Amino acid sequence: MAILVYVETENGSPKKSSLEAATYGAAVGKHLGKKVVAVVAENNAANLATLGNYGITEVLQVKTDQALASDVVAAIIAEAAQKISAEVVVLSKTTVIDAVAPILGIKLEAAVASNVIALPDFANGFVVRKGVFTGKGFADVKLESNVKVLTIKKNAVVVQTTGGSASVAELSMTVPASAVAVTEVQKQTGDILLPEADLVVSAGRGMKGAENWGMVEELAKTLGAATACSKPVSDMDWRPHHEHVGQTGIKVSPNLYIALGISGAIQHLAGVNSSKVIVVVNKDPEAPFFKSADYGIVGDVFEVIPKLTAAIKSAM
Ligand SMILES: Cc1cc2nc3c(=O)[nH]c(=O)nc-3n(C[C@H](O)[C@H](O)[C@H](O)COP(=O)(O)OP(=O)(O)OC[C@H]3O[C@@H](n4cnc5c(N)ncnc54)[C@H](O)[C@@H]3O)c2cc1C
Description:
The protein is an alpha/beta fold. It contains 7 helices and 16 strands. The longest helix is centred in the first third of the chain and has 17 residues, at 16-32.
């Protein structure tokens, strides 16, 4: 019996969200007195032993060139879970994993809890807290099946290092062909990937045009933040589509979300509501976004943004 963590990689190295999942898995393993194993679909094994620094004892590496569509990922995780008789499978919640988790639930006859935000309460069985209603509330759910699948909300867990190095072994399996045809893969540009970001600087139609985004980018660069935007902004091609957040875009849950000239429509809020701290800058004191803000500045973005950037620079 063991805990299994699915680790995603970027250029051969584990993603931060997967390190959060590893930290979570390590804490569960410690409590249950079980070893923690990671499964990785990655041809390059160079950096996988570093997972030992996050509480993983063993890495099962599946070598495959297949596009990692949800059904392929589910098959890989299920194979690893069955091999080590996993009783808890931990994944970081992403768009792909949202589709993987229910497939795993069926394959492993497991109860699935998604968007988990805290370690299980073991005193009352296996009770996990999950975010619901786009982060506005939470639910405590008791998982009673032998195998449990948990998807962990990004930034809900602080990555902890334990020291050590993991052993890496190949898990050879026949990776099935996907029933999903991946026709195109678009890589996000920029230094900081939006879905992974701790800090996000986002702007809307209040910026008036693409030519004014220099100041947004400078603020983001000063903070070390990713940039994002509202839907109309990407629809008008002021910004690339992979920056659009909201109901129909990317869902983010950073520690800090700065919204510049965004009204705060319900469809936008659906993608950002679970941010820890929200700062809103809008010239209209009645803008709906202020109701969801932790801090608000009523002012003109063209005056406030340069002042904010200068203040942050001088505080550094
Ligand atoms: C089915 C559906 C799905 C949708 N999905 C999404 C989604 O995923 N994401 C999303 O973002 N939207 C989505 N929308 C659109 C959404 O309803 C809003 O229209 C959109 O979010 C508004 O974008 P905005 O706030 O940038 O623009 P606006 O609504 O035009 O707001 C601009 C804001 O900037 C402020 N402003 C203007 N000038 C300045 C200035 N100089 N200084 C400071 N503030 C200023 C204004 O006061 C205003 O509040 C969806 C809509 C539908 C119907």
